Amino acid sequence: MGKLCIPQGSIRKLLVKESHEGGLMGHFGVDKTLSLLKSKFYWPHMRIDVQRHCSKCITCLQAKSRVMPHGLYTPLPIASSPWVDISMDFVLGLPRTQRGFDYIFVVVDHFSKMAHFIPCHKVDGASYIAKLFFKEVVRLHGLPKNIVSDRDAKFLSHFWKVLWEKLGTKLVYSTMCHPQIDGQTEVVNRSLSTLLRVILKGNKKTWDDCFPHIEFAYNRVVHKTTNLSPFEVVMALILSPLLTYSLSLILLLCFTKKAYQGLIL
Prior knowledge:
It comes from Cajanus cajan. By secondary structure, the protein is α/β, with parallel strands linked by helices. It folds into two domains: 1-64, Endonuclease III, domain 1 (Orthogonal Bundle), CATH 1.10.340.70; 74-252, Ribonuclease H-like superfamily/Ribonuclease H (Nucleotidyltransferase, domain 5, 2-Layer Sandwich), CATH 3.30.420.
């Protein structure tokens, strides 16, 4: 209900192109691109059009990995609410940017699948990472009850000591740290690596400038586990598709004399 039915012609191609490779879209695969389109638009055989465009996208063909993912990871208890059970990990080995960043601190909520991508430095220790965590995660979502990380126990112990000092309390914290890999951040890291390769297009010195776009693109698309976007799960917020805002411009461009002839096919 409430969807726009798009007639056959160039508008369909423009909408598919925008939903797949627009500035805040992220070159996602067929299913996620299709979910963005289907939220506001309808036309017959939409999936076929999306599959055709994605299969011919030069940027995706050059950037996306064909390596199969790892096998099953250690399962963890199912989370009961957003930002109670989280994973944190680091993406390593990145080219140093103009501001000196060469690591990415990745924090993933198990319940909503929302993620935060935080640029950092290889030399950053547990104290600085704890401050980043407070600034970028705790101030937005509160303190989690469980954290999963493959970092060693010494790092995690110091991490929590500094964070607890930051909170200004002497109480014994109840948050548990689990030094293991659960697969949540592994999956997100693969998506993040793909997004980085797609969006940067060889500009290795400014990948940290892209993170507001990358994080927004990741958190606004529907996740196959929840059938909702992370934004919807955490904030009950359904973002107005950027496609809706650009549709009037697309229509204006299409209805020039030349484009109008191409529209009536």
